[in-house]
């Protein structure tokens, strides 16, 4: 039996109106990215809303990581990458010459697939960003370290070993440390590129719980291979295929009544 149903135009209009009431934090318009001659993203139009979790799903190689790296301009570190189109963060083009990339990266934090703590103490990992931003006062740094670790649900586990090397933490703890490090500079948006794919189920559950708490204060965009994870944690989902966005909408709707047969096939596990 096919799970595909066509969304009535009236319902679509209501949904669009609901989305319109929310504050857009990020949007991309007609975004194209090439690596040399290979086009990895094709005409991507997407919007992301404040205090929501948006999941980017799709099979391997469909362009999810390329897309997320374009949002904070990390894509520019790839020598043969070419970008065309608009990437707008809170009404401002991220490519605007008057917008320093350091400022963008302070407002838009990123958590990677593999936890990547610095080979420094737990304390220094968290204090690193605030110190770069000029905070030197020890008491202020202590407060930031404690607050960030509490927000990342790691404080109780590490409060007695703050000056030990972060590389001595478990993988799941290291990933929560990386989230705490990202929170320490008080970002507005958090980009996550498969943040739990290297973690065991218990650590994954902790990170998912944490994300649910973080969305009261932050907007989160997460790339995930795991469709159950997207369904559990996200408000909105975008389905990528071969560098295009096939469908984007409320997660509950996209998973129960996908509008496009390719989305239906993917979520039913018929490919990917
Ligand atoms: N640095 C690069 N140079 C050349 N091609 C690249 C580069 N990075 C990615 N690609 C290609 O661009 C396409 C999109 O890759 P991307 O990593 O964005 O996909 P993805 O959906 O994140 O995949 P995965 O789920 O496997 O991480 C793929 O065909 C990939 O081989």
From TrEMBL:
InterPro entries linked: AAA+_ATPase (IPR003593), ABC_transporter-like_ATP-bd (IPR003439), ABC_transporter-like_CS (IPR017871), P-loop_NTPase (IPR027417), PstB-like (IPR005670)
Domain of life (superkingdom): Bacteria
GO cellular component entries: membrane
Pfam name, any one: ABC_tran
Family annotation (CDD domains): ABC_PstB_phosphate_transporter
Domain ABC transporter: 14-267
Any one GO MF annotation of this record: ATP hydrolysis activity
GO biological process, one term: phosphate ion transmembrane transport
Record keywords: ATP-binding, Nucleotide-binding, Transport
Membrane-crossing residue ranges in chain numbering: none
Matches recorded under PANTHER family: ABC TRANSPORTER I FAMILY MEMBER 17
Full protein name: Phosphate import ATP-binding protein PstB
Organism: Geobacillus subterraneus
């Amino acid at each position: 039996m096919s799970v595909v149903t066509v969304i009535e135009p009236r319902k679509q209009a209501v949904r669009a109106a609901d989305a319109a009431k929310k504050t857009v934090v990020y949007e991309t318009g007609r975004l194209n990215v090439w690596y040399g001659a290979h086009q990895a993203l094709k005409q991507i139009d997407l919007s992301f809303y404040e205090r929501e979790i948006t999941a980017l799903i799709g099979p391997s190689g469909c362009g999810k990581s390329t897309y997320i790296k374009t949002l904070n301009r990390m894509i520019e570190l790839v020598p043969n990458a070419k970008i065309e189109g608009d990437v707008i963060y809170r009404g401002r083009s991220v490519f605007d010459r008057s917008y320093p990339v350091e400022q963008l990266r302070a407002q838009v934090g990123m958590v990677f697939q593999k936890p990547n703590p610095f080979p420094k103490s737990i304390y220094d990992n968290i204090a690193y960003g605030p110190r770069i931003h000029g905070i030197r006062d020890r008491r202020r740094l202590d407060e930031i370290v404690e607050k960030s670790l509490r927000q990342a649900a790691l404080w109780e586990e590490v409060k007695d070993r703050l000056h030990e090397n972060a590389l001595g933490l478990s993988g799941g703890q290291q990933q929560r440390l990386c989230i705490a490090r990202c929170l320490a500079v008080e970002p507005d948006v958090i980009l996550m590129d498969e943040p739990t794919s290297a973690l065991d189920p218990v650590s994954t559950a902790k990170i998912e719980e944490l994300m649910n708490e973080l969305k009261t204060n932050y907007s989160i965009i997460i790339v995930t291979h795991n469709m159950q994870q997207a369904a559990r944690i996200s408000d909105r989902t975008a389905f990528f295929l071969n560098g295009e966005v096939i469908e984007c909408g409320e997660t509950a709707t996209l998973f129960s009544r996908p509008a496009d047969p390719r989305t239906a096939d993917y979520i039913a596990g018929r490919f990917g």
